[in-house]
């Protein structure tokens, strides 16, 4: 099923699918992403099977104020994060014990956090009141798929929520904030701040 995010019921549809343990494909401010309930071990297992790899995942949170529930953060880091989020960035922080499945960060002690400038997925996260795993739409080792028609061919069993804007993205800029100074791990769409 493909649902345009202009559909007035799209938030309810996506929220129900995620709460039911389903995988969805959704737009962000960078690439489209696979999303599942970040607290649901079975859903993340299914995502690993779909991507043909076990990997660490980042999560989408509704707002900066939610970060403290999942990661250790001080005022300096918070000031920096407030400059870049919401936006095309993933920040890596030291993780706290939380409701997240252990499959999200695989006991790494860190967590990747995204708050995209993308109302659709932020509204879904707010409605279900829990984080959503985010990862690019591809099978491990292959290029990210940016075309919705291609996504439907490769992943016909996954519900796709699409927007009318064309994507042309390098993904999010990943910034490690686990130490005192920010360290760029990957340059993506976000400018270096």
Describe the structure.
The protein has helices at residues 10-19, 41-51, 75-84, 102-105, 119-128, 148-154, and strands at 2-4, 24-26, 33-37, 58-60, 89-94, 110-114, 132-136, 159-162, 173-176, 183-186. By secondary structure, it is α/β, with parallel strands linked by helices. The protein has a 10-stranded mixed beta sheet with strand order 1-8-2-3-7-4-6-5-9-10, with helices on both faces. A hairpin with a 6-residue loop joins β9 and β10. The protein is globular.
Write a compact overview of the structure shown.
The chain has helices spanning 10-19, 41-51, 75-84, 102-105, 119-128, 148-154; strands spanning 2-4, 24-26, 33-37, 58-60, 89-94, 110-114, 132-136, 159-162, 173-176, 183-186. It has 193 residues and is of the alpha/beta class.
List keywords for this structure.
193 residues, alpha/beta, ten-stranded mixed sheet
Helix count equals 6
Report the average pLDDT across residues. Answer: 94
Which residues form runs of ≥5 with pLDDT under 50?
Answer: none
* Counted beta strands: 10
- Largest sheet composition: 10 strands, mixed
What is the overall silhouette? globular
Measured distance between first and last alpha carbons: 39 Å
- Side by side, the strands of the main sheet go 1-8-2-3-7-4-6-5-9-10
Return Rg in Å: 16 Å
Helix content: 25-40%
Secondary-structure element order, N to C: EHEEHEHEHEHEHEEE
Q: Strand portion, in percent?
A: 15-25%
Detail the topology: elements first, then pairings:
Blueprint: E1 2-4, H1 10-19, E2 24-26, E3 33-37, H2 41-51, E4 58-60, H3 75-84, E5 89-94, H4 102-105, E6 110-114, H5 119-128, E7 132-136, H6 148-154, E8 159-162, E9 173-176, E10 183-186
Parallel strand pairs: 1-8, 2-8, 4-6, 5-9
Antiparallel strand pairs: 2-3, 3-7, 4-7, 5-6, 9-10
Helix pairs in contact: 1-5
């Amino acid at each position: 099923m493909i649902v345009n995010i202009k559909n007035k019921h799209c938030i309810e549809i996506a929220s129900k699918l995620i709460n039911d343990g389903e995988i969805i494909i959704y737009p962000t401010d960078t690439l489209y992403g696979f999303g599942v309930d970040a607290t649901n071990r079975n859903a993340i297992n299914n995502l690993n099977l779909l991507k043909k790899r076990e990997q660490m995942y980042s999560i989408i949170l509704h707002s900066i104020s939610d970060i403290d529930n999942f990661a250790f953060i001080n005022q300096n880091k918070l000031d920096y994060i407030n400059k870049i989020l919401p936006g095309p960035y993933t920040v890596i922080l030291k993780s706290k014990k939380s409701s997240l499945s252990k499959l999200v960060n695989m006991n790494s002690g860190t967590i990747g956090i995204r708050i995209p400038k993308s109302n659709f997925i932020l509204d879904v996260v707010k409605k279900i009141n829990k984080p959503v795993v985010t990862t690019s739409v591809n099978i491990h080792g292959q290029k990210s798929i940016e075309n919705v028609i291609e996504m439907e061919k490769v992943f016909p069993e996954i519900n796709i929520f699409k927007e009318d804007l064309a994507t042309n993205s390098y993904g999010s800029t990943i910034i490690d904030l686990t130490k005192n100074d920010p360290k760029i791990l990957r340059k993506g769409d976000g400018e270096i701040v």
